[in-house]
Amino acid sequence: MSSAVVPDHPWLLPGHLVPARAPRRTPRDWFVDALLFLIALGWVLVAHDDAMSRSPDFALNIGPDWLIGADLFVGLLASAALWLRRRWPIGLAVATAPLTLFSVTAGAALLIVLFTVLVHRPLRVGLTLVCWNVAATLPYIVLRPDPALPLWAAVAWTVLFLGIVMAWALFVRARRQLVLSLRDRAERVEAEQQLRLDQARHLERSRIAREMHDVLAHRISLLSLHAGALEFRPDAPAEEVARAAGVIRASAHAALQDLREVIGVLRAESGSEATPERPQPTLGDVPALVVESREAGVRVSVVDEVTGPAEVPVAIGRSAYRIVQEGLTNARKHAPGTVVTVRLAGGPGDGLAVEISNPWPVGGPATVIPGAGTGLVGVAERVSLAGGRLDHGRDAAGDFRLTAWLPWAVSA
What homologous superfamily is domain 286-412 in, according to CATH? Predict the structure, then answer.
């Protein structure tokens, strides 16, 4: 079923969807419509029987004799027309409005139509219909006077009765608007909660993907470096071959273990609080990373000027480790054989500065080891999320330099 947004509908909240065509009646709707039809039909029979009895004490004033048959016909017609009140309430109200001037038997059906318009249609339309019923009281009393009541009393009773019907209809209208408001709010909260869960899941998977890139790129670059050394030096001493093979085996095992655990986290249902169990390095693991690179044949020089390294926050230390790891990996890929300088400096309140530099290779960067080209993008995003700054490129001396600054607040 097609729907349309009605921004300023008088009885629905702004932006609420209403069906483009009238929905089918539910079993409850059929029950209510049948009950109202029987009530209106019952009133037609009671009013007509009372008019025919002509009881001097209880009979309704019927007016001229010809009016009895006409009143019965229009009462039955108005009762049958109640089946159209859901689809065309305003049209039905306009069509039956003249009956208020003379009909007794159509009274119940007319009140039901008035109630429907007040509940489901713009309030100004319902109030207009109420004013018409009040105005029609005088012609009705003139045509069918009641000798037991003076004119003012008959008008007062009519206005009081219409006021009760209008108050009841407005109460039902307000209650339905409240239910629609609560339902709309609940649907929006549910949709927003689902959106937050999807966003958290997406962010978590993106973060795990960055972790996987950082770890696997580093280990696979070691594998490529050692495999290349074995390829170009098949006559190397047995000790060097065995050591290179051991590094290849250990790096491959570690890479497979990292990949297995990261994929396990991706398969699990992870929310915004979930974090991968492995790897979670810190600033204290940088020396081991440097040793691993030196064993792979990379010449690394380290300058450590960090004040109170044990006080570095875990998240900042992990980001610093990843920055150093990415810098060493890029140096092995694009500038093999050069000396890589790693400098760490800073302290609480001053922030943590990380700098990785290496001379620009002769003849331009090498591209022996392939890469996805997204390592620095991931590092930049990591630094940005931490509230830091990142810069990379060739400096005035012609060296390639990767520098980052991470905030390090003073612990309370």
Answer: Histidine kinase-like ATPase, C-terminal domain (3.30.565.10)
